[in-house]
Amino acid sequence: MITQNSIVTGRNGFRYQLGTVLGSGGEGTVYRLQNPQLVAKIYKTADSSLEHKLRYMVDHPIPTVVDQSGNLILKAAWPQDVLFDGNGHFVGYIMPIVEGGIDIFEIERGCTSAKAKSLFPNYTWRLNVLVARNLAASVN
């Protein structure tokens, strides 16, 4: 069983030690790592189709999107490495931690949260289209 302080290994043999739990949900648990820019998501159950999808995502990263002034518009917690336990079984992935932003669903739902309203005080549905376009272009 993988828990805090467990060691997991990436595709190229890099070893990660899991730190404190940041959150847990239906799919699995997210752990801090020594590198403060990265976290690990460990699945409760993982299968080969999920591993295949994550390998593809790691091999096809999306760019960070900035505006004309260089201000960050879109940063996604996109997988950066696939993780395996001590027996070589797929267990999860590494992704960058995204702090200080807002969940894309807060924009999609009309910027109703206080944080979303403060970041987008002049919100219109046109912003939804722009966000959707930027996300689609990045993931494409």
Properties at a glance:
single chain, 140 residues, alpha+beta, 7-stranded antiparallel beta sheet, two-stranded antiparallel sheet, 9 strands, 27% helix
Structural commentary:
- The protein has 140 residues and is of the alpha+beta class.
- It has helices at 48-59, 104-108, 114-119, 125-139; strands at residues 7-10, 15-17, 21-24, 28-32, 38-43, 65-66, 72-74, 81-84, 90-96.
- The strands form two sheets. It has a seven-stranded antiparallel sheet with strand order 2-1-8-9-5-4-3. It has a two-stranded antiparallel sheet with strand order 6-7.
- It is elongated.
- The N and C termini lie far apart (36 Å).
- 16% of the residues are buried.
* Strand tally: 9
Calculate the terminal CA-CA distance, rounded to whole Å.
Answer: 36 Å
Strand order of the largest sheet: 2-1-8-9-5-4-3
Radius of gyration: 17 Å
The largest β sheet comes out as: 7 strands, antiparallel
- Portion in strands: 25-35%
Mean pLDDT: 85
Q: Pick out the low-confidence regions.
A: none
Portion in helices: 25-40%
Structural class by helix and strand composition: alpha+beta
Shape: elongated
**What is the succession of H and E elements?**
EEEEEHEEEEHHH
Helical stretch count? 4
What's this model, at a glance?
With 140 residues, the chain is of the alpha+beta class. It has 4 helices and 9 strands, in the order E-E-E-E-E-H-E-E-E-E-H-H-H.
What layout of secondary structure does this protein have?
Elements: E1 7-10, E2 15-17, E3 21-24, E4 28-32, E5 38-43, H1 48-59, E6 65-66, E7 72-74, E8 81-84, E9 90-96, H2 104-108, H3 114-119, H4 125-139
Antiparallel strand pairs: 1-2, 1-8, 3-4, 4-5, 5-9, 6-7, 8-9
